[in-house]
Specification:
Layout (H helix, E strand, L loop, with lengths): L12 H17 L6 H16 L22 H14 L3 H25 L2 H15 L8 H16 L7 H11 L3 H15 L5 H10 L9 H15 L16 H15 L8 H11 L6 H7 L1 H6 L14 H18 L23 E2 L2 H11 L11 H4 L1 H10 L6 H7 L3 E5 L4 H7 L3 E5 L3 E5 L4
Parallel strand pairs: 1-2
Antiparallel strand pairs: 2-4, 3-4
């Protein structure tokens, strides 16, 4: 007999927990765009559409222009470019809602298949929301989360493993994290000694080598490895705080998994999968979401103690609430979309002249989208391209390295800066004059002397 908490006849605690993630996803989808990386991806898409080929060198910066650079996300960039051509950036909230909804629906299916518990499914979804919500931005990585979950769902069901090569071809064309999916199925093969599925895994790996970049896709991974020391200079790649909100679900999930192992719900052989992804989650804040996703199966297997239920269905009240969330809420909050206020220099950029401009990586992403590639940027967040230049840039901004040699090298005579950063004072002391300022940004130019 099903327990009261999981009864499908009324809107219970289990159903309430299931609703919360969808409310969060709808609100997140219509949040203002804060992601500068997404903006340059859009412009990369239009360039590739116009050229009829993928990018193989940097078209955007005057500091690395013409250097070899492979855009790892060419397929989704083409999508961005097409959609922007049709509706500007109005497509972003709807795209976010569709992709995140598919991701969380797939997570729910995995959790329910493993646990057959509505309450367990709701708890896994709730923890997934806390773990992923701050990383659900419109840049290509959001598609990688969906693809990772689809790979997990497809691999865990032997009847759907035929889809793996197709999914990996898409993933390798969308984001460089496809190697995490290959690692997942490789570790699953080892833990279960499922050697009959080795050919499928092998063909899936080969599929990543026949995208638009061909064998050069391996160079993307090598560039990422080479850039790893410089990624730590970016906030999203810093080591996660173990007591942070983002890391909390991951920490809880690990505890539950080891608890499940003591109860026999998780096999000791599964540690072959659990330990490596747990270790990966400790390395960087950006690594927490994929590490969490990789552990959904053992976490879900550890939670049937929360109660079993009848097949997942909802009462009229439950269905009505879901309908309101998905269909009504977007139209209530959709005015909140667009670029984030104070995040990007929309007005300040209009006063720039055609000469090289100094700025940070966030402003660089915006300038590429707004005026690129005609306006070349100093730097943006493509760590695999700039590598050592990132460290030099940080040193200049922090005063550990003089700015004059770099400005002279590139002929920089104007700077677009955040109003409260120290360089504003240094340039002003050197005789640079303000030609524009607002509460967020300032444009300075060198004196005519």
């Amino acid at each position: 007999m099903p327990d009261a908490a999981s009864s499908p006849r009324r809107f219970s605690l289990a159903h309430l927990i299931l609703v919360i993630p969808w409310v969060a996803l709808v609100i997140d989808a219509w949040a203002p765009i804060q992601d500068n990386s997404f903006l340059w991806h859009v412009r990369a898409g239009t360039l590739q559409i116009n050229a009829g080929s993928v990018l193989t060198e940097d078209p955007f910066s005057y500091t690395a222009g013409g250097e070899a650079w492979l855009t790892q996300s060419w397929l989704v960039e083409l999508l961005y470019g097409r959609l922007e051509g049709l509706s500007g950036l109005d497509f972003v909230p709807w795209m976010m809602l569709v992709v995140t909804a598919l991701t969380f629906a797939s997570i729910a299916l995995i959790a329910y298949r493993v646990s057959t518990s509505v309450l367990t499914t709701g708890v896994v979804l709730l923890l997934s929301t806390v773990s992923l919500i701050s990383f659900l931005v419109p840049r290509p990585v959001i598609f990688s989360y969906l693809l990772f979950v689809l790979v997990i769902m497809g691999w865990e069901n032997r009847a759907t493993r035929w889809s793996m090569p197709f999914l990996f071809w898409i993933w390798a064309s969308v984001h460089g994290s496809f190697f995490l999916g290959l690692a997942y199925i490789g570790l699953r093969l080892l833990s279960r000694k499922d050697w009959k599925s080795l050919p499928t895994a092998f063909v899936s790996g080969l599929a990543t080598l026949v995208t638009a970049h061909g064998l050069a896709v391996t160079a993307i991974l090598l560039d990422f490895v080479a850039a790893r020391p410089y990624l730590s200079l970016l906030s999203e790649w810093r080591t996660p705080e173990l007591l942070s909100v983002v890391f909390f679900p991951f920490f809880v999930g690990i505890i539950l998994t080891f608890f499940g192992a003591t109860k026999g719900r998780v096999k000791s052989a599964d540690l072959i999968l659990i330990v490596p992804f747990f270790a990966m989650g400790l390395t960087a804040l950006r690594s927490v979401p994929p590490a969490w996703l990789a552990l959904i199966v053992p976490i879900s297997a550890s939670l049937p103690v929360l109660g079993r239920s009848l097949p997942l269905r909802f009462s009229r009240i439950s269905a009505g609430i879901f309908a309101a969330v998905v269909l009504v809420v977007p139209f209530v909050i959709r005015a909140d979309g667009g670029l984030g206020a104070g995040r990007f220099p929309e007005a300040a950029a209009d006063v720039l002249d055609d000469s090289p401009v100094f700025h940070n990586d966030v402003i660089g992403g915006y300038l590429i989208w707004a005026d690129g590639p005609e306006r070349q940027v100093f730097i943006d967040d493509r760590a695999e391209l700039f590598q050592g230049r990132i460290e030099k840039f940080v040193d200049i901004r922090n005063g550990r390295e003089p700015w004059e040699p770099t400005f002279q090298e590139y002929g920089i005579e104007q700077a677009l800066l955040v109003v409260d950063e120290p360089m504003v004072g240094w340039l002003t002391d050197a005789g640079w004059a303000s030609v524009y300022s607002d509460e967020d940004f300032i444009v300075l130019r060198a004196s005519a002397d």
